[in-house]
Amino acid sequence: MDLALIYNPNTTEFDLAVDGADLAAEDSLVSAVMVSLFCDRLVQPYEVSQGEDRRGWWADSLTDGQQLTGSRLWLLERSKQLISVVKLCEQYCQEALAWMVEDGIVSAVNVTAFAMRPGVLAALIHFTLNGASRRFRFEYDQERQIWRFTDEVQ
Predict the structure, then answer these.
(1) Highest mean pLDDT, choosing among 34-38, 65-69, 148-152
(2) CA distance 70 to 128
(3) In whole angstroms, how large is the CA radius of gyration of the chain?
(4) What does the alpha-carbon distance between residue 33 and residue 98 come to, in Å, rounded to a whole number?
(5) Is the model's pLDDT at 66 over the cut of 90?
(6) Is the pLDDT of residue 2 over 90?
(7) For residue 11, what are the CA distances in angstroms to 103, 122, 129, 153?
(8) 33-37: which pairs have CB atoms within 8 A and are 24 or more residues apart?
């Protein structure tokens, strides 16, 4: 069970869902995927300029770096829309979601990234679980410098 997140497409923000006086829980993939992709993963010193923040999630310090939370998608924020950047997007999403296969939550994760139009990068993520499929689409708007959950693709 995860804490349930509510997505507001108008503000492109997430908030914790409330159920009465308690935080709501959910067992779908949505919250796990959001945390995995949109928390900033700690990067190695060589991946950023000297003196630049390596970011990372505060709780990673409790695992001695054995299991890092989040993704390196934040490294692509100011990148040009090149084929190599599209490939990095796929790689970073796959890396961020690998724990779901390792923990047996899903049996497979496949990521396809593509340039939708100038300034917009999209990632289509396909999960296989219990013989069924779930697909989510995310878009990165380079002008606004923000990722957003577009929808669950049927």
Answers:
(1) 34-38
(2) 21
(3) 16
(4) 11
(5) no
(6) no
(7) 32, 19, 31, 21
(8) 33/97, 33/125, 33/136, 34/5, 34/7, 34/149, 35/2, 35/69, 35/70, 36/69, 36/70, 36/71, 36/96, 36/97, 36/99, 36/100, 37/70, 37/71, 37/73, 37/93, 37/96, 37/97, 37/138, 37/147
β-pair partners for 25? 3
Within the chain, residue ranges assigned H as helices are 30-38, 83-102
Residue 1 one-letter amino acid: M
CB 2 within 8 A of CB 27: yes
- Scanning the structure block, which residue is given the tokens 């999960």? 127
In the structure, what pLDDT confidence band is assigned to residue 133 with cuts at 50, 70 and 90? very high
